[in-house]
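Re: that chain you flagged

S.,

Sorry for the slow reply, it's been a week of failed gels. I finally had a moment to sit down with the sequence you sent. For the record, here it is as I used it:
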Amino acid sequence: MTERDFEARCSLDGKVALVTGGAGILGSEFCRGLLQRGAQVVLADIDGAAADLAAQALADVHGGRVLAVACDVSDPDSVAALVQAGVERFGAIDVLLNNAASKSTDLTAFFAPFEKYSLDQWRQVMAVNVDGVFLVAQAVGRQMVTQGAGGSIVNVSSVYGVVSSDNRIYEGSSYLGRQINNPAVYSTSKAAVIGLTRWLATYWAEHGIRVNAIAPGGVESGQNDAFRARYAARVPMGRMAQRHEVVGAGLFLASEASSYVTGQILVVDGGLTAW
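Prediction finished late last night. Pasting the structure tokens below so you have them in one place:
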């Protein structure tokens, strides 16, 4: 393979990518990376105003190759409208970055001790983190099958879908203005994403649709010094990730550079799971 051939396989020129949670910490970086690789991007987020702002910022650099759509991924009708909007604007969907996830609107309930965790809160998170991944993958996969040209679906799991969290790192933590932890619902939902990814990879392989997941470790996004130091001590590379460092894994799995990769979980964690 020549250098030019490899560059072509890494390119996303002419591809249409849909990113859920596109206005979020990782979603906005995925959108930027996809546009830089030449893709047209459907930026979906439950917060329509945030989606519009994020898309406008990207459009200022990349022109009309980005479309903002407000979407509740836990609502089948909203998901159907999202896919329809993307196809109407760009003609197809070739790549899905299934990234949307929820910490809920009630942080006290979200971070509650397991013994006191409410079923309503559990279901609220699962509705986005699992049901949402299922609904968007289902709708986009159906569209890809109809198109008959294959495609790539990249689900976003977490290192905490692969291993349990070390609760010691949360001692003295502060994030989002409060003490935090890693609740069981988050780990369980992200483990479910891995199971769904592997099942879909075998189910859609005959249609040329590859399905993989990335499992990021902790991404620096405003945590306090105590948390960052405790987390870094658990990581061979000695630090948290910067958000742009997760994007490369998603772009690799989205492109033809990974044309023989499916059903895999690419862990991006600075070596945390190697210890």
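What I noticed first: Strands lie at 16-20, 40-45, 66-70, 95-98, 151-156, 209-216, 265-268.

Talk soon,
D.
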